[in-house]
Every structure is written in structure tokens, then in C-alpha cells.
UniProtKB/TrEMBL annotation, chain B:
Similarity-based family: Belongs to the GatC family.
Organism: Marinobacter salsuginis
Record field: catalytic activity: L-glutamyl-tRNA(Gln) + L-glutamine + ATP + H2O = L-glutaminyl-tRNA(Gln) + L-glutamate + ADP + phosphate + H(+); L-aspartyl-tRNA(Asn) + L-glutamine + ATP + H2O = L-asparaginyl-tRNA(Asn) + L-glutamate + ADP + phosphate + 2 H(+)
S-adenosyl-L-methionine keyword on record: no
Subunit structure: Heterotrimer of A, B and C subunits.
SUPFAM superfamilies: Glu-tRNAGln amidotransferase C subunit
Recorded superkingdom: Bacteria
Protein name: Aspartyl/glutamyl-tRNA(Asn/Gln) amidotransferase subunit C
PANTHER family, alphabetized: GLUTAMYL-TRNA(GLN) AMIDOTRANSFERASE SUBUNIT C, MITOCHONDRIAL
NCBIfam families, per the entry: gatC
Length: 485, 95
């Protein structure tokens, strides 16, 4: 059962082949048995999950079921869950129990899905290896059999590792600079970052508000579509949510790909990419050509500036967002503060980890008097240039394809000594967040036994087309079905 | 671009993060590296480019000025480090 997709589990529940209680218990048992190897969960909500499963079985019996009723899944620990601890991977929120649900949480609850628990992540979603979690690093299920402990990517490393290890069929995730696509690629699962504004950010703990976007992670494109059906939509509680109709993302999965125009950004097939990775990605693109797609080279001339622009904009917004953690209203408070300033500065020094503090300091610097124009304003202008590249590219082609990452999963500890080395991990994903367009990572092969991700990028609100392209690829390949040993 | 010890101390105060003396050298190096990376932006010609704040250039929605939320003070204060009679407690500010 644990290797079945959300779509299959949903059908099995519908035909009474299995009950939600049985299914939920099976996944809970797997987590208990297996997760000490991966550390992919921060909190497992066993009692709540079984209670929700019992309710889901009653709902099914009463004929009030949605596709999700009784299907187990997990939330990245960045989505607030009413009454269930939500840590965002930080000591600052180690004991934070939100008094409300994120909109995404409420949507899954409404649909009758059963939350197994909260997945591990880089602290405040800042990181590309999941080594910045206060609750310990996550280990990639791939590579373990060769005795190497590799990173799952980040920041949604717990979600990706849990899905890859079959501890949950699906998990929510968030993506500010690659935090869904990069871990999905490194763990061999399918992930989607929707258009900015498509999924509500309400109750999703903020990192960089103009870039943050909630999204999906599962093994198949079809399951990502089922997730997005629940998650997408206008939310008056999110001031940047977009009021636009939500299609049924599963309805167009089977459209033929004949005539699909694929662009290959030449900047993403550069010398940063290992030849073995490039070979896998080119093979994947050949599959699309076999299905009648056409391929041409395009250019994103300003993409090379994306990391620089991002490391102004994201830290600047983080420094403002994280100013709310003051040791007064909720979260960590230092022992015996001698005055108010001591309370603030020590609570924040002790409650935040090193990477989070670095980014707050960089952001504060970039926003401080005398530097605002040179850094923040300049980065926002470059951001528009980057966006314009994508707008121009989508005048010529329907989708862009590239590798998701320059290399497969690396060994834990390999890139922790210099923050900038780690930042370069997101070289192919970060421009997409700056432009605000949607993109996926789809399993597309292996290099040295480690998964390779194909990134598919679309124009604004083209999630249905991306999911269709990924689904069709998964009808003729089985990379997404491979299980780590 | 290098960042000085004084800059780091000043920024730490602005950010309300205590930075101990022995941490400053490491921060000088790490923040200096990050700012070096960021300095690539200087190469871009952005003279006639408008800054971009939202990918779809959306603006803040307005709503009627009506009370729509209910008061949940007790629920919110239940998770605070220290409260008394509905107030948040902090160290004495005025002697």
C-alpha cells in the first residue's frame, strides 16, 4: 500500500479495498520504523491522524467523500496547524502551537485528508541542504545503501525525503528560491512551485513575501495535480493572492503533447552543469520530441544576475518579516533579561540559527540608510530585467526545460563552510521565483545511482500545462517509480 | 565590497541581534562574501527600468473599514512567554 500514489489510494478507499484507519496506521508504522534513518519528520501527530482517519471513514460511508477523504499526507512544518506545534525548523518556534490554521491547512482539512505530521525543513526555509534545521539534518534516502549520507536538498528536504522513502504519499512544501524543486530533484520525486499568488500564503510562516509560494510534492504529476486542486485559489486573507479561476488540474493531464514548443535556455546548459547530468536531461527532452514536441534554443540573458538579485531581495524581506520574533508575544524568550533591549537581542541571538542571523544581518544592511538604493532598489530593477527575459521567451515557446540542479545530491557537510557555495546550488531555480512564473521538477534519470531532476518552467498560470507535460512524460518513463533501496 | 567591524556592530543593533566579539570576524568574512556576490548587480544597466515589487504588478486590495475579526486575546496570550491581566510582560522600561 505504501508505494501507491494518492490517486490509487483514493480509488482503493472509494472501493473499500482499504479503510483510512488501516492506511493511516500503515504509514504511521512506517514512519516509526524507518524515519530514524532520515529524520524527515519533526512532529508526528499519531492520535490526531487516527481520529481524522476514523472521521474520514465515516464520511466515506455516508457518501460525502472528496478525492482526498481519508488519504494520508504531511505538511511542511512551515504551515500553521491549529493546536499542533509548528516550528519552521527553528528553536525560536520550538514550542509554538498556533491558535489558527493556515489556509492551505484548512483546505486539506476541509477536503478530508489525514495529516500524518509535520516535516523537517531548513530553519525559516533558508537553505538548500536541510542542514540548517534546529531539529537536525535530514538524510536523503538515495545513496544510503552505498553508505554515504547525502543531503535531501532544501528547504523542503523533509517533505522530499518522506515522499521518496514512502513514509507519506504526498507532502506540502514551499519554494522561495528553489525549495520545492531542488529537494524534489535530489530525492527523485515530483514537485511543483505554482505561479506567485496562486496558493495562499496566509498562515505559511513568511520568509521573503514577494517570492514565497506554497506548492506540492508527490511521486507523480497526477498527485501534484490532485494536491493543487485543493491548495490553489483566491484568499482574501493573503494580500497578494490572485483572484482567478482555478481549473481542475487533473482534467487536462491526458492532452497530447504534439506541437508543444519547448525552449532550452542556453544559460542553463552551461559549464556549471556536469556532462553526466546534461546527458540525462537531453535524453528526457528526446522523449518529448518522440511525442511530437519541438525544441529550440532560447536565451535568458539576465539569468546570471538572479542569484545576486535574490540575495538582496530575500534577505531584505526576511529581515523585515523576522522582526516579529521579539521574545514578547510568542516564541523563544531568553532567561533573565536585564532590560528590554537585552530581551530582544538575546532572544533573537539564542533563538535563531547561524544562517538565519546572517540573512537578517545582510538584509538589514541592504535596507539601512545610505544603502537602500544601491542594493534593494537596484535588485528590484534587475528583477524586472529577469522577468522580461521570461516574458520574451514565452512569446516564442510554450515551456522551458532545463536541469533542476547542476549536480545530484551532495554529501552532508560538503558545502556548509561557505554560505555562498551553498547559494550556488539554486543557480537554475532562483530566477523563476524572481519572475514569479510556475515550474516543476520531474524525475528524469540517475547519475551514479542518484536522481536527476528535469525542470519544466511555464508562463504565468500555466500549471495545468506543466502538469500535463510532466504526466505525459511519466506515462513513457518510470524514473518517478524507482524506490531507494 | 568589504564590510567593516563597525558596520556589523551597527547592523546587529538595528537588527536587534546580539553579536559577541568572537563572532564578528566570521561574520565579516561571510557577509563580505555575500556582498561580493551581490556586487555583480552593479554590471546591469537599469537606468530606465522600474523596480519590480510584485510579479503581476498587483497592488494592495482595499476593503471596507468594518470590524470582521473576533477578539481572541486569550488564545493569543496563551502562547506568550509571560502575561498578566491581559498584558504582555517585559522587563521594566521606565524606572
Amino acid at each position: 500500500m505504501h508505494s501507491k500514489s494518492v490517486a490509487e489510494l483514493s480509488r482503493d478507499l472509494e472501493s473499500r479495498k482499504v479503510s483510512s484507519v488501516e492506511l493511516t496506521q500503515e504509514f504511521l508504522d512506517r514512519i516509526k520504523r524507518e524515519d530514524s534513518k532520515y529524520n524527515s519528520f519533526i512532529t508526528v501527530t499519531e492520535e490526531q491522524a487516527l481520529a481524522d482517519a476514523r472521521m474520514a471513514d465515516e464520511q466515506r460511508a455516508a457518501g460525502n467523500a472528496t478525492a482526498w477523504t481519508g488519504v494520508p499526507f504531511a505538511h511542511k512544518d512551515i504551515f500553521c496547524t491549529n493546536g499542533v506545534r509548528t516550528t519552521c525548523g527553528s528553536k525560536m518556534l520550538e514550542n509554538f502551537v498556533p491558535p489558527y490554521d493556515a489556509t492551505v491547512t484548512a483546505n486539506f482539512r476541509q477536503a478530508g485528508a489525514v495529516c500524518l505530521g509535520k516535516t523537517n525543513m531548513d530553519e525559516f526555509a533558508m537553505g538548500s541542504s536541510n542542514e540548517n534545521s534546529y531539529f537536525g539534518a535530514v538524510t536523503n534516502p538515495w545513496g544510503l545503501s552505498e553508505g554515504s549520507k547525502r543531503v535531501p536538498g532544501g528547504s523542503s528536504g523533509g517533505s522530499a525525503a518522506a515522499v521518496a522513502a514512502r513514509l507519506t504519499p504526498a507532502a506540502t512544501a514551499t519554494d522561495t528560491g528553489g525549495s520545492i524543486r531542488q529537494p524534489a530533484a535530489l530525492c527523485g520525486v515530483t514537485g511543483l512551485k505554482p505561479t506567485y499568488g496562486r496558493v495562499s500564503r496566509y498562515g505559511m510562516i513568511a520568509f521573503a513575501s514577494s517570492l514565497d509560494q506554497g506548492g506540492t510534492m508527490a511521486r507523480t504529476a497526477e498527485d501534484n495535480a490532485l494536491m493543487l486542486n485543493v491548495m490553489a485559489g483566491f484568499d482574501p486573507k493573503d494580500s497578494t493572492s490572485i483572484d482567478r479561476e482555478v481549473p481542475d488540474y487533473t482534467a487536462t493531464l491526458n492532452e497530447p503533447l504534439k506541437g508543444l514548443k519547448i525552449g532550452l535556455p542556453k544559460e542553463y546548459f552551461s559549464d556549471q552543469l556536469s556532462p553526466a547530468m546534461e546527458q540525462q536531461v537531453r535524453n528526457a527532452i528526446k522523449e518529448y520530441e518522440k511525442q511530437g514536441a519541438t525544441v529550440k534554443e532560447v536565451s535568458l540573458p539576465n539569468a546570471k544576475l538572479a542569484i545576486a538579485a535574490y540575495y538582496v531581495i530575500a534577505p531584505a524581506e526576511a529581515s523585515a518579516n523576522l522582526s516579529r520574533f521579539d521574545g514578547v508575544r510568542y516564541g523563544y524568550r531568553c532567561e533573565d533579561p536585564k532590560d528590554l533591549m537585552d530581551l530582544y537581542t538575546r532572544s533573537r541571538a539564542e533563538g535563531f540559527g547561524e544562517e538565519v542571523k546572517r540573512r537578517i544581518l545582510v538584509g538589514t544592511y541592504a535596507l539601512s540608510a545610505g544603502y537602500f538604493d544601491a542594493y534593494y532598489l537596484k535588485a528590484q530593477k534587475v528583477r524586472r530585467l529577469i522577468q522580461q527575459d521570461f516574458i520574451n521567451a514565452f512569446k516564442e515557446v510554450d515551456v522551458l526545460m532545463s536541469p533542476t540542479t547542476p549536480s545530484p545530491a551532495f554529501i552532508q557537510g560538503e558545502k556548509t563552510s561557505d554560505p555562498v557555495t551553498m547559494y550556488l546550488e539554486d543557480v537554475f531555480t532562483i530566477a523563476i521565483n524572481l519572475a514569479g512564473v510556475p515550474a516543476m521538477s520531474v524525475p528524469a534519470g540517475f547519475v551514479d545511482g542518484l536522481p536527476v531532476g528535469l525542470q519544466i518552467i511555464g508562463d504565468y498560470f500555466s500549471e495545468a500545462r506543466l502538469l500535463n507535460a510532466a504526466h505525459q512524460f511519466q506515462q513513457v518513463t518510470d524514473w518517478h517509480q524507482r524506490e531507494p533501496q | 565590497m568589504t564590510i567593516s567591524r563597525e558596520d556589523i556592530e551597527k547592523v546587529a543593533v538595528l537588527a536587534r541581534i546580539r553579536v559577541d566579539d568572537e563572532q564578528v570576524s566570521a561574520l565579516e568574512k561571510d557577509l563580505g562574501n555575500i556582498l561580493d556576490l551581490v556586487d555583480q548587480l552593479g554590471a546591469a544597466d537599469t537606468d530606465s527600468v522600474a523596480p519590480m515589487a510584485h510579479p503581476l504588478d498587483a497592488v494592495q486590495r482595499l476593503r471596507a473599514d468594518e470590524v470582521t475579526e473576533t477578539n481572541q486575546r486569550e488564545a493569543f496570550q496563551a502562547i506568550a512567554p509571560a502575561t498578566e491581566n491581559g498584558l504582555y510582560l517585559v522587563p521594566r522600561v521606565i524606572e
